[in-house]
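Re: the 354-residue chain
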Amino acid sequence: MVAERAEGRGERKEEGRKVNEMKGRGPASEEEALKEMPYSGLTQRSNRGTFLSSTANTMHFLFILFFCLGVNTESTHTTLTEDAVTVQIHKGGVVKELEILTRQTKELSCTMDAIPSQPHDVTGYWKINGAKIDNTSHTVYRNKDHYILNGTFNIGELGNYSCIFSLSGNEEQATFVFKVPAIKQRDKPIVSYIGDSVILDCQMEHSKDHGPDTWNWYKVNGTEKEFLNVTAESTKYQLDSKKNKTKLTVLNLTKEDSGKYVCSAVFKIGQADSRVELKVLSFTEPLKPFLAIAAEVLVLITLILLYEKKSHSGKGDSETTDNGPQQEQMNKLTQDETNGMDGGSTTRQRKVDQ
């Protein structure tokens, strides 16, 4: 800024000298030159500032425009590009998940708060998948109010790296979980019918994740996974795989196609799996619940009719039993009367004959 001011004053002085010479005057002093040309240097500086401001505004506008248009359309998780990762240990432990795609070197750092009653130093070491890593145990000295444990590792496979602080017989730890990007998990099975075709699909959990190098499909047979060779079985399967998703079409379904299928996203350092369950039904399958209900209703109606019939039969027998002696007595009286009438007629007939 001082240089620009000096340069501006020099230019104004030179221009003032030229004006004096044109007017027939001798060299002018610095103050006179400034009075003769009071705005020349300011104008140049103003123009220069205007140009810089205009350029800055233009660059700012282009930046906003590129951002809105999505010039950087592919965004990744910060964990994919971070070389150093730090965690703050809390009581009960901390778990930090890190997504990686290839073998790489990571610097891991754990920080644990210290309290005045704690010692000046503690023992710190590292574990991988629960097993202590050799030559990582050393003394961690108190740094102000913190204990800091660092470690640099060549991550060649997926797994868990844990930092351990051993303090007065107790251990505090944080765990870094290295994994590949996850696949969306499907909770409900896919249902289709014999003779139809069905599409089984899988996709990455985050749509902007780095896609796998390869998609593979398997069918689960008991505890084993059978690789589906789509190329060799083109009449049965069709495969359509893109960067972040894959679709497996199963043609001409049969009952044997029912079961669990596994889609696998294969990366250079490992793979992520997701299961899809397929149920193949016959066309009569949906009618089975209604048929079962109809059968239950029919059995219930039959039981009711049998009960009613038995009730009426028992009532008729009871009435016959109750009225039996009275009916028998009435029949006897009727028979006696009939016999009496017949006897009187015979006697009168005998008297007439005599």
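Confidence is low (pLDDT under 50) at residues 1-6, 22-49, 59-79, 350-354.
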